[in-house]
Design brief:
With 284 residues, the protein is an alpha/beta fold. It has one domain: Rossmann fold. Helix content is 30%, strand content 24%. The strands form three sheets. A seven-stranded mixed beta sheet has the order 4-3-2-5-6-12-9, sandwiched between helices. A three-stranded antiparallel beta sheet has the order 1-7-8, with no helix packed on it. It has a two-stranded antiparallel sheet with strand order 10-11. Helix 2 packs parallel to helix 7 and helix 9 crosses helix 11. It is globular, with a radius of gyration of 18 Å.
């Protein structure tokens, strides 16, 4: 991952990041890490990400659910297997949704997939139709405006509905790749910044041959304070918040060790790094 180039403005998150994510899809769809065979072979199989948060999700049977920025839909299928109804996945990548729809068909999962930028989700799905809005790891960092996103999440929920987030910690997103001497240091913004941070990323986070056809990307960090304040301003009440020293990919390369549940944490003194968090909030 290489940092460089001017900071784009306007709709750059779509102009740059949509082709970037389109180019990731073939590698993710073919990867054992996304585990289509495990879903097919075991009707009770869940993605590692959803399984991690089962104690926090609780009983979600019968909840009308939308998964924002669902990518190829493994977490969406997992939510459906836990008994959600009217389950909807939303993503801006058409190739990702084609894979998601194909997988749902193979698995007999009753899921509707909708192509839309997350900021247009209310226009695409309507207001107040969902009991649960779910967003998973590696979603918020692709969005330039957390306040606008919070407004979308709140608008999608029915009164009393719940927002559930499992996300990479903004402390982690601020870290640079480890140096040769193993030092991990804060290099990138912790707070939301205009224009974001551009990178050139030729490989995605699963093992694969070849390089991404569209390697340019732009990401934005959002501090915990910015996220929580934005939700509160939209009438959301924080009901649970937990920080974790693990994250479901080797975010800092060889400095991280894989645990038995698909999670990774620092090999050396993992208590130094908040790697991810789970946040829940209810619409008043």
């Amino acid at each position: 991952m290489q940092r460089g180039g001017p900071k784009p403005t306007g709709g750059a998150h779509l102009r740059v990041n949509r082709p970037h994510w389109d180019s990731r899809v073939p590698f993710h769809a073919a990867s054992s890490e996304y585990g289509l065979d495990r879903f097919v072979g075991d009707p009770h199989h869940l993605s590692d990400v959803v399984r991690f948060d089962l104690p926090r999700l609780g009983d979600i049977r019968g909840l009308r659910t939308v998964h924002l920025q669902c990518h190829i839909g493994t977490d969406t299928v997992s939510l459906s297997r836990l008994g959600t109804v009217g389950t909807t996945g939303l993503d801006f990548s058409r190739p990702a949704l084609e894979v998601a729809r194909h997988r749902a068909g193979l698995l007999g999962a009753d899921i509707t997939y909708v192509e839309s930028d997350v900021y247009d989700a209310v226009e695409a799905l309507g207001t107040g139709h969902f009991d649960l809005v779910y967003t998973g790891i590696g979603a918020l960092c692709w969005l330039p405006d957390i306040e606008r996103w919070a407004g979308v999440a709140a608008a999608l929920l029915a009164p009393g509905g719940r927002l559930f987030i499992r996300e990479g910690h903004p402390m982690l997103w601020a870290m640079d790749e480890p140096r040769a001497d193993g030092l991990v240091a804060a290099e990138y913004p912790y707070f939301e910044t205009p224009g974001g941070t551009p990178f050139v990323t030729t490989k995605t986070y699963v093992e694969h041959e070849g390089e991404l056809a569209s390697p340019e990307e732009i990401t934005w960090n959002h501090s915990l304070g910015e996220i929580i304040t934005a939700l509160m301003a939209r009438g959301m009440t924080l009901t649970a918040f937990e920080e974790h020293d693990t994250v479901p990919w080797a975010a800092l390369g060889e400095q991280m060790e894989r645990l038995g549940d698909g999670e990774y944490r620092l090999r050396d003194r993992p208590e130094r790094l908040a790697a991810s968090y789970t946040l829940q909030a209810v619409k008043s």
